[in-house]
């Protein structure tokens, strides 16, 4: 393994499209959640860093903006169930185009493609993996992996994240966003055991492609427990493409907007601060200015009117 000092020295001189890869082996879900939460804030040794791990225990990892019970991760979206064998993919980027041409509107669409190639090649099912623009990957018409992102509009730091259901389904229940397709696992579809080590290496190879690749130690993560704190129910909820959106005050009395959406964290924080006291007639404009501005990433919401409506309903409750 290359020393941390040498990695820092190499990172200074490499081309922006170089990829640092950390093969972490088996890791507790709590460690993986902590690493995910730190992805937008920790120092990067390269402009693009890929971390791959195999989960060793059962847990539920809740989205960054949810009110739910479990371990808090860094990406938005709904809760994700993990178990022994689940493969975690974390691609930390200095900006959306650090590894491949991409902008804030296409983070998942562009960065899921190497994962699709790896699942087709080494997923054990002999079936092609597909992505249809939602927050999951399909193999043999079954959702078998969750995909999403974390993003900060001011710094442009980006995380593409995925959880591959090798033998544990990734959703606690069937979701409306599955469009009636029952979820599956790679081993259930393959009818045999899947070699996680071979799959992890195939994922690493797919993301590296023809770019320079250097080894990376597993990124340090904060030691905080990371359990999602107990919060009151949302004061108002509306259903959107990806799942529920909510608004209301948290346990400390701070007005929050959240749910299963994926969005730039600082854009959402700005909206929360403004929406708490703004005149109701200004809310539609504030939502548009906060979430539809250039440089802001947003997914899972068909209409920003839903965000405005849930804020209004929460403030009136």
Number of strands: 16
Query: What count of helical segments does DSSP give?
Result: 9
Gyration radius (Cα, Å) is 19 Å
Mean pLDDT over all positions: 91
The helix/strand order is HEHEEEEEHHEEEEHHEEEEEHHEH
Strand order of the largest sheet: 7-8-9-10-6-2-1-11
Report on this structure:
This protein is of the alpha+beta class and 317 residues long. The longest helix is centred in the middle third of the chain and has 13 residues, at 196-208. The strands form four sheets. The protein has an eight-stranded mixed beta sheet with strand order 7-8-9-10-6-2-1-11. The model is unreliable at 1-16 (pLDDT under 50). The protein has helices at residues 4-13, 29-37, 107-111, 113-122, 186-190, 196-208, 265-275, 283-291, 304-316; strands at 19-27, 48-55, 59-62, 71-72, 80-82, 87-93, 129-131, 136-139, 142-151, 158-164, 213-215, 236-239, 244-249, 255-259, 262-263, 298-299. A hairpin with a 6-residue loop joins strand 9 (142-151) and strand 10 (158-164). Helix 4 (113-122) packs antiparallel against helix 6, helix 7 packs antiparallel against helix 8 (283-291) and helix 8 (283-291) crosses helix 9 (304-316).
Write the layout of secondary structure elements.
Blueprint: H1 4-13, E1 19-27, H2 29-37, E2 48-55, E3 59-62, E4 71-72, E5 80-82, E6 87-93, H3 107-111, H4 113-122, E7 129-131, E8 136-139, E9 142-151, E10 158-164, H5 186-190, H6 196-208, E11 213-215, E12 236-239, E13 244-249, E14 255-259, E15 262-263, H7 265-275, H8 283-291, E16 298-299, H9 304-316
Parallel strand pairs: 1-2, 1-11, 3-4
Antiparallel strand pairs: 2-6, 3-5, 6-10, 7-8, 8-9, 9-10, 12-13, 13-14, 15-16
């Amino acid at each position: 393994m290359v020393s941390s000092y040498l990695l820092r020295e190499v990172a200074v001189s490499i081309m922006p499209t170089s990829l640092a890869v950390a093969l972490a082996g088996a890791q507790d879900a709590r460690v993986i959640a902590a690493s995910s939460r730190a992805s937008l804030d920790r120092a990067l040794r390269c402009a693009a860093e890929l971390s791959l791990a195999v989960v060793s225990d059962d847990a539920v990892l809740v989205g960054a903006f949810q009110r739910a019970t479990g371990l808090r991760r860094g990406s938005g979206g709904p809760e994700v169930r993990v178990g022994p064998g689940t493969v975690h993919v974390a691609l930390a980027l200095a900006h959306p185009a650090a590894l491949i041409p991409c902008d804030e509107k296409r983070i998942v669409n562009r960065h899921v493609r190497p994962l699709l190639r790896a699942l087709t090649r080494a997923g054990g099912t002999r079936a092609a993996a597909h992505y249809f623009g939602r927050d999951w990957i399909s193999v043999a018409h079954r959702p078998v992996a969750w995909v999403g992102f974390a993003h900060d509009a001011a710094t442009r730091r980006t995380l593409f994240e995925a959880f591959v259901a090798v033998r544990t389904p990734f959703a606690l229940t069937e979701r409306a966003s599955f469009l009636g397709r029952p979820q599956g696992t790679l081993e259930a579809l393959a009818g045999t055991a899947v070699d996680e080590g071979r799959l992890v290496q195939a994922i690493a190879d797919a993301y590296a492609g023809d770019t320079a690749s250097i080894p990376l130690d597993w990124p340090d993560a904060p030691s905080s427990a990371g359990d999602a704190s107990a919060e009151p129910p949302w004061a108002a909820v509306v259903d959107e493409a990806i799942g529920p959106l909510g608004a209301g005050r948290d346990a400390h009395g701070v007005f929050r907007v959240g749910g299963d959406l994926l969005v730039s964290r600082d854009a959402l924080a700005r909206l929360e601060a403004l929406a708490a006291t703004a005149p109701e007639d200004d809310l539609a404009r504030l939502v548009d200015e906060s979430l539809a501005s250039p440089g802001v990433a947003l997914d899972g919401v068909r209409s920003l009117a839903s965000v405005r409506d849930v804020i209004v309903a929460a403030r009136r409750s």
